[in-house]
Amino acid sequence: MNITVVAVGQRVPLWAQQAWDDYAKRFPGDFRIQLKTLKTEPRASRTVEQIWALEAERIEAAIPKDSIRVSLDEQGARWSTQTLAQHIQEWQLESRHLTWIIGGPDGLAPHLRPPNVTSVRLSDLTLPHQMVRVMLIEQLYRAWSILNHHPYHRE
C-alpha cells in the first residue's frame, strides 16, 4: 500500500520529526508512507477564504492521481483504531493510493472537508499540528499491526 500524508506547515520541532521518522521506518517495504509538507499561507491581509484557496491549490498539487482522500478535520467521523484498520484493509484491496490531508491553522477549504472527502477526527481536543502528524502515523502503524497480527497492538 502507498500512503501519502499531505500536511500544511513546515516548521516541525525535532522531536516531532524524530517520532515521524521512527514510525515510518517500522513499516514493511510493501506498506510505503511518505510525508509531503507544504508552506503555510501568510496570514497578513488575507481572508480565511483566500488562505483556504491558496493552500488548497498546493494540497491538490501534492495529492497523487486517483488517490483515495481522507482529511483530518474537527468535524470528521469518530473512528476507533479497529475501524481505521478495517478501512485500511478495504483500501488495500482497492489497490489505490491513499492520501491523508492535514490542513493549516485555519483548517481546510470546504471542498477538502465533509461531505466532499472522507474525514476523520483524531480527538475532541484541539491538538498542535506537529502532534497530529505523529498521532496519525502512530495510528496507521497500529492499524497495520492489527491487520498483520503484530504484537505492537495488544487488546
Describe the secondary-structure layout.
Layout: E1 2-8, H1 14-24, E2 32-38, H2 48-62, E3 68-78, H3 81-94, E4 98-102, E5 118-121, H4 129-147
Parallel strand pairs: 1-2, 1-4, 3-4, 3-5
The CATH H-level homologous superfamily = SPOUT methyltransferase, trefoil knot domain
Query: What's the total number of strands?
Result: 5
CATH second-level architecture: 3-Layer(aba) Sandwich
Integer tally of domains: 1
First-to-last CA distance = 25 Å
Fraction of residues in helix: 25-40%
Structural class: alpha/beta
Question: What is the string of helix and strand elements?
Answer: EHEHEHEEH
Mean pLDDT score, rounded?
93
- Uncertain runs are none
Please state the CA-atom Rg, rounded to the nearest Å: 15 Å
- Name of the CATH first level: Alpha Beta
The CATH topology assignment is Alpha/beta knot
- Our count of helices gives 4
Strand fraction equals: 15-25%
Strand order, sheet with most strands: 2-1-4-3-5
Largest sheet: 5 strands, parallel
The shape, in one word, is globular
Question: In words, what does this structure look like?
Answer:
By secondary structure, the chain is α/β, with parallel strands linked by helices. It has a single domain, classed as SPOUT methyltransferase, trefoil knot domain (Alpha/beta knot). Helix content is 38%, strand content 22%. It has helices spanning 14-24, 48-62, 81-94, 129-147, and strands at residues 2-8, 32-38, 68-78, 98-102, 118-121. Strands 2-1-4-3-5 form a five-stranded parallel β-sheet. Helix 1 links the parallel strand 1 (2-8) and strand 2. The two termini are 25 Å apart.
